[in-house]
Amino acid sequence: MFGVDLYRLWAMARKEALQLRRDRRSLALAFVLPVLLVLIFGYAISWDVRDIPLAVVDQDRTQRSRALVEAFTSSGYFHLVPSPPTYEEADGWLERERARMVLILRPTFAARVESGRLAPVQALVDGADANTAAIALNYAQVIVGAYSARVAAELHGTALRQAPLTPQVRIWYNETLTSRNAIVPGLIAVVMMIIAAMLTSLTIAREWERGTMEQLAATPVHPLEVVLGKLIPYVVIGLIDVLMTLALGLLVFQVPFRGSMGFLLLSSLFFLLGAFGVGLFISASLRSQLLATQVSMLATYLPSFLLSGFAFDLTNMPRILQLLSLVIPARYFVVIIKGVFLKGIGLAVLWPELLAMAAFSVIGLGLAARSFHKELE
Predict the structure, then answer these.
(1) Residue-wise over 30-52: b if at least 16 C-beta within 10 A, else e?
(2) pLDDT at site 112
(3) What's residue 84's pLDDT?
(4) I need a labelling partner for 192 at 20 to 30 A (CA). Which of 31, 69, 241, 321 fits?
(5) Are the C-beta atoms of residues 297 and 198 closer than 8 Å to each other?
(6) pLDDT tier at 211 (50, 70, 90 boundaries)?
(7) Sign of the alpha-carbon dihedral angle for 43, 47, 48, 54
(8) Positive or negative: CA dihedral 233, 239, 241, 247
(9) 76 and 117 fall within a common domain
(10) Is the pLDDT of residue 166 over 70?
C-alpha cells in the first residue's frame, strides 16, 4: 500500500526500537520528563489567589469594625499581617510589600452602620500584580457585600431592604473554580507536543552524526518506510506517556474525567503522529542533534504555551495573533482534552478539532517523508 513493504517497515521499526532501547538518555527523556513537567508545572502554575496579606487601619475599633475584619480573615482568602498604625503610613506597607491590601475603616464606621447611613470601606491594593489585585478586589467586594446584607438583616429584620436582588449563580464543568482543573488538562497537551517533537528531532540527525545513514542508503528501504518505521516505537511511547500524564491528572491533581477515553486516545494518536512528523522533519532538515533539539523547542514550546489557549485567553489577544493561533496544533488538542476531561463531550461536538488533528498528522508525516532523502548528497 502506497509503495510500503510491510516486512521492510517492520524491520525498520524493530531497528529503531532496539536503538532506542540502548539509548538510556532518550528513554529517560521519553518517560521521566513528561511526568516531571506535568508535576512541576501542575503544582507551580496556579490561577487561584489565596492567603493574600491584609493590613488593617481600624480607626473605629468597635465590635462592628472587628466583625468586618474577621469576615475577611475567616474567608480563607486573606490573612492578617502587622498593620500600619496610621492611614498616612499605609502607602509604605504596600511599597515594601508587607501587605497586598490595606483596609481602611474610618472612626465613624460603626455609628454610620447603626444609623443606616452609608459606611464607606476603603481598600488600598497593590496593583503591581494586576491579576492578583483584580482578584483581591473581587474577593473584598463579595465579603463586604455579604457583611452588609448580614448587618441589614440584623438591624432591620430582612436583607431585602439593602439587597432587593439576590443573584443565584451556578458554575458548570469546574464548580469549585479550581485552577488546576483547567491547567492540568491543557498542560498535558503542551507537554506532549514538546516531548514528541524533541524525541523524534534526534532520530535522523543521530543517523547522520553516527555515520549509519550511509548503511541505510545502501538498502532498498523507501523514504516513507524509514519515516513510518522510525515513528512506530515513538508512537507507542507517546501513547504510554499520554496514559501516564492522564493518570497524574486524575490521581495526583484530582481533575474530574467525564468523557470518553477512546475518543481522547484517538485524538492523542492523531496529535502525536503530527508532532512526531514535525520532529522528523526538523531532524532530517538540520542533520545535527544539538541544532535539531534547539529548533524543536523553539518551534513547539513557545507557540504551544503562548498561542494554544492553555495559559492565555486567545480572545484577548490582537487579531493577528488570533489568526496565527489557527495553525498551532496544540490549540485544538487543548480544546479536545479540556472538553473530554471537564465537559464530557466527544465527537458530536469536537469533530472540527478532531478533523484538525487528523489534518495535522497528515501534514506532519508528509513533511517528514518529503524532507528525508535517502540518497547521499
Answers:
(1) beebbbebbeebbeeeeeebeeb
(2) 85
(3) 83
(4) 321
(5) yes
(6) low
(7) positive
(8) negative
(9) yes
(10) no
| Same domain? 270 vs 340 | yes
**Close Cβ partners of 46 (under 8 Å, ≥ 6 residues apart):** 179, 180, 183
Going from the C-alpha of 99 to that of each of 60, 81, 93, 120, 133, the distances in angstroms are: 21, 7, 6, 21, 12
Give the separation between CA 197 and CA 194, rounded to whole angstroms.
6
Work out the pLDDT band at 317, boundaries 50, 70, 90. confident
Angle between helices 63-74 and 130-156 (to 10 degrees): 130
pLDDT confidence of residue 132: 78
So what's the pLDDT on residue 167? 47
Q: What is the total residue count of the chain?
A: 377
**pTM beyond 0.70:** yes
Q: How many CA atoms lie within 13 A of 287 on its CB side?
A: 12
Q: The C-alpha cell of 304 is what? A: 504551544
DSSP, residue by residue, 292-355: HHHHHHHHHHHHHHHHSSSSS-GGGS-HHHHHHHTT-HHHHHHHHHHIIIII---HHHHHHHHH
Q: What CATH number is given to the structural domain containing 106? A: 3.40.1710.10
Find the distance separating the first CA and the last CA of the chain, reported in whole Å.
28
Q: What's the pLDDT score for residue 156?
A: 65
What sign does the CA torsion over 321, 325, 328, 333 have? positive
Sign of CA dihedral 204, 205, 208, 211: negative
Q: Do 104 and 127 share a structural domain?
A: yes
- Let me know if residue 207 belongs to a domain: yes
| Residue 292 belongs to domain spanning | 6-46+178-371
